[in-house]
Design a protein that fits this description.
Elements: E1 15-19, H1 21-34, E2 40-46, E3 49-56, H2 68-80, E4 84-92, H3 101-106, E5 113-118, E6 123-130, E7 133-141
Parallel strand pairs: 1-7, 4-5
Antiparallel strand pairs: 2-3, 2-4, 5-6, 6-7
GO molecular function: metalloexopeptidase activity; zinc ion binding
Protein name: MPN domain-containing protein
Organism: uncultured Rubrobacteraceae bacterium
């Protein structure tokens, strides 16, 4: 069955992010070991289906900001692997899995999905952030 990442289905979500359980487990393990600092990285694959994660060092003291050189080198790796940039991920060690004001300001990739992992709820949620507008994205774990 073909996966259509952008759709308005029975769930009411505009988009779908499909991620293998093993990759999500890797993100969660990284978030736990990185706490109390946030961890971050890229989600790569095709359409809304994640095939690989690329951890990028966080250089921010609070919140997250990807290391600029590592950010660019991993984007090159994604291109060289003939994958698409599906989105970003980061953790919220002390807050819920919803975009913070800073996340909204950093949402500079409107075509990307944003996966947020909260360690306090615990919860995993995804969003499309564009022009200050936040839309929920369904997360399907396979």
């Amino acid at each position: 069955m073909a996966h259509r990442p952008l759709r308005k289905g029975l769930s009411g979500f505009e988009a779908v992010l499909v991620i293998p359980e093993s990759l999500l487990d890797g993100i969660l393990a990284s978030a736990r070991s990185g706490a109390p600092r946030e961890v971050c990285g890229w989600l790569a694959g095709e359409g809304g289906r994640v095939e690989r994660i690329y951890a990028v060092p966080n250089v921010a003291e609070s919140g997250f900001r990807m290391h600029p050189e590592a950010q660019l080198s991993t984007m090159r790796e994604i291109r060289e692997a003939s994958l698409d940039l599906v989105g970003t991920y980061h953790s919220h060690p002390r807050t819920p899995a919803r975009p913070s004001v800073r996340d909204l300001q950093l949402g500079s990739y409107p075509d990307c999905l944003h996966l947020i992992v909260s360690l306090v709820e615990p919860a995993v949620r995804a969003f499309r952030i564009s022009g200050g507008t936040v839309r929920d994205v369904e997360v399907v774990v396979e």
